[in-house]
Amino acid sequence: xxxxxFATVWLAGCSGCHMSFLDLDEWLxxxxxxxxxxxxxxGCDLKHYPDNVDVCLVExxxxxxxxxxxxxxxxxxxxxxxxxxxCAVTANVPxxxxxxxxxxxxxxxxxxxLGDTSPQLPYAPGIVPELLDRVLPVHEVVPVDIYMPGCPPxxxxxxxxxxxxxxxxxxxxxxxxxxKFG
Amino acid sequence: xxxxxxxDVGEAHRAAQKATRVHCCTSTGCRAxxxxxxxxxxxxxxxxxxxxxxxxVVGVGCMGFCGRGPLVQIDPQQALYEEVKPExxxxxxxxxxxxxxxxxxxxxxxxxxxxxxxxxxxxSGKVDPESIEDYIxxxxxxxxxxxIYEMSPGEVVDEIxxxxxxGRGGGGYPTGLKWATVAKMPGDQKYVICNGDEGDxxxxxxxxxxxxxxxxxxxxMAIAGYAIGANHGFIYVRAEYPLAIQRLQKAIQQAKKYGLxxxxxxxxxxDFKVDIRIGAGAFVCGEETxxxxxxxxxxxxxxxxxxxxAQSGLWQCPTLINNVETLANISTIIREGGAWxxxxxxxKSKGTKIFALTGxxxxxxxxxxxxxxxxxxxxxxxxGGVPDGEVKxxxxxxxxxxxxxxxxxxxxxxxxxxxxxxxxxxxGGMVVMDQDTNMVEVAQFYMEFCRGETCGxxxxxxxxxxxxxxxxxxxxxxxxxxADLAKLESLCHMVQxxxxxxxxxSAPNPxxxxxxxxxEEYQELLQPPAYLNGKVGHGQVTVSQ
Amino acid sequence: MSVKTLKINGVDIAIEEGATVLQAAxxxxxxxxxxxxxxxxxxxxxxxxxxxxxxxxxKLLPAxxxxxxxxxxxxxxTPKLQEYRRMTVELLFSEGNHVCSVCVANGNCELQDVxxxxxMDHSRFTYRFPDxxxxxxxxxxxxxxxRCILCTRCVRVCDEIEGAHVWDVAQRGAxxxxxxxxxxxxxxVDACTSCGKCVDACPTxxxxxxxxTTGEKERDRAKLDFLVTAREKHEWTR
Lengths: 182, 545, 238
Prior knowledge:
The complex is a heterotrimer of chains A (182), B (545) and C (238). Helices cover 32% and strands 21% of the residues of chain A. By secondary structure, chain A is α/β, with parallel strands linked by helices. In chain B, β7, α12 (242-257) and β8 (273-278) form a beta-alpha-beta unit. In chain B, α8 (153-163) packs across α11 and α10 (205-212) runs parallel beside α12. Chain C has 238 residues and is of the alpha+beta class. Chain C folds into two domains: 3-77, Roll (Ubiquitin-like (UB roll)); 84-233, Alpha-Beta Plaits. Chain C has six helices and ten strands; from the N terminus they run ββαβββααββαββαβα. The two termini of chain C are 28 Å apart. The interface between A and C is medium-sized, with 30 and 25 residues.
């Protein structure tokens, strides 16, 4: 049997969802028998998102140009895209900057108003990705197949979401154990 | 006052009238085109010509052809002048002595006038709205007398039932049934409310009625009070209608002085007083339960029905609430009889309806037409069609109504036919649109209106209108996908079916009707999803506002 | 007092005349989600979550304000109702700034519970991210308007049970917000008795006790129930 091509990506989030993924502990070993990790900040060292990925967990919202470029690529090259955690599903804490109304006021607030010593706006074209005006949940940018809320989603929820996929079934995202936010 | 005295007042007033009456419109529309200056100059011209003995200049209400104001009509000569300039006043008076005038001559035989059937507007533009004697001289308050002395309250209700009249505020609920319900409700204290909180964009029928013939409405209210057993009425008028309020105040004072309102009307045991309540700028207060909250001094929020106002309305008392135009029909129905009224109109929609004909049309103004007339007759014959273009759609019912495509212009104008094609009668706004009109923008305009006017009480209306507006904006910015369009439609149905009051229930109508008849305009705006076209960067993926 | 019999989801129920469909459903153990309803204060029918289908009318009726009638047949969970309820909850989430992970009410929030109940795993509507205020001028309590869903429970509980009427609604439409006193900071409103009923009534983390942090909000809903029972049935001890 061919192994499932499995990826995880980390966009605008705290990486807590990935930490929770690592909380799967020994089940990760079981998972490894079913999947080939083709791209992941915690699972392999490949730098390019490959073609024909079967399942991808996307942590984080879309906050900058890099996030945007990557998510469009992920969507094009992935069969089942999972919004992984509240930042991916709702934009969550990163989106609390959206209330300020755009990238410019956010940068001014962070780097000028709150800058203790030598306040200045960061400027490094081509190195530091430009902020988007608003942080967006993943499904505002590309279609999403499965939504897994939680901040972070507990390991049990992650397992209950992934496990059916290994057997070619869709998980049932219902009930407090599966879809409670926060 | 008794009948003889009433007739004497009318007789004396008629006798004092001059042979020639120069009627000058002094309503809001013509005032905006300096009618008051025309009025003043006409008076001076009559004095200067030494014609005071046989000619009088009368400030009257609306004559209807608002797009050509200020209007001046001389009777009995039946001479109509349009777009009269203040400096033309002298020459118009000169025509009475064989002179000529450069003033634009109007044609009273034009279908715009000729096709009208005037019941509500029968005195409009003929009587001085600030003179109760003028109103009495054309038969005013006779119906009230007839009701009190020649009919029992039950007979009055029966007459209204027989007339078949339905509510002119938009919903089209049978007025007689409403009256009968309130009349049958137990309780010593009942109220009559006249809903003059007209707020649809492009609608000004009620304003015109209140400005042109306030006594007709007051008489209708008093008859309603007699029929249902109420001794107190309220007229709720929006603050944006100062002239209507001023004329109503004057009319109430005059009627009280003659004993036609207040205690022991016509020396009978029937008491009926009328108070004015002024709105504070909220469109939703036209919704009856919100209006009642507002009169009570509360926040103008609708409350769930039942209980209906007829059961528990103002201060929990049975309350009859009718629109201005409905109440303005009552006096004539009592005078001529319900059967006569029922002979006008269609099977299920009786009588006449006033429309404010506006938009891309030659003849703008107010028309009163029999129910059952087709949209084509109104728009093409009476309205004269679109200048330099073609009719694309007709919007009826304001933000609660829909856009009717030109292909359905032969639809008869009645409550049920309009609902069947996805619009509604509404209060009477009728906006004509030409081929240059973008229908998605039209839907967006009305949704912006609803979004700003929702009271915010129920969730679907408060936030649904915001999301609908955002989706339309996204479409118009050419950033929406097929999925967004599907979302737009499903949200329309949700807001329609789950909102608490009529505002939310009908708010999606402009979108749904344009989706139905002008779907291609929506389709043209759609974009393929960003992830498919392979381009990345600002402007590809968007954040809707 | 007479009794009415009706069917809810096909099950026969008998209940006293004047009861609401919501009361009948609760008696029968049929769950109907609610947010603006609060036992003990009058119902406003505003959140529209409790809409049900009643045979004989095309209109969806709010169970909280619809009285039972003889022979009534009620459906509480048709596909259409499920879909509309989920949309309603999504609209609420997209309207305010509901960040569960940093909210005092996380894990103890009726909005969160309702989201689970209606199966909302994400919002299809674009988040609005409104710019809303937080008022912590009161010595004991705070109100975070970002988390407010305008259910007006606080308005009613303060007016009808405490009798202070500190709260009301200002503005209209999307601009609506809960206002204390005459649009004063809460701490400056003399009418406030600091009784805390609004904290207990608030379904979300909008009104909270100062000092409680993420997931720490507790409610004493029993206190409200006790007060209502005390007044209505003159049972003064609990």
